[in-house]
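Exercise 7.
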Amino acid sequence: MTQTRASEATGEQAKASASSKASDDEGTRVSINSASAEALAQAMNGVGIKKAQAIVSYREEYGPFKTLDDLKQVPGMGNSLVERNLAHITL
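Solution. The predicted structure, written as tokens, is:
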């Protein structure tokens, strides 16, 4: 009986985790004009802490991004990387 309850609990946790991840991927966008480097690195595919820090540094030096395409001006952020992340970012 205990194993069955443990299995049910594990299954429920897995479903909750998968559900949480799906909602994070679908609805949560990070602002490239206000997010920290850590938040950018976590939210964007293919962007680690160094590229995220480059985004923040660029923003601090040149001011807020006016369009999402402006992100391509950041060293290390090419067309494909920006395109891949359009669903994850906002101004």
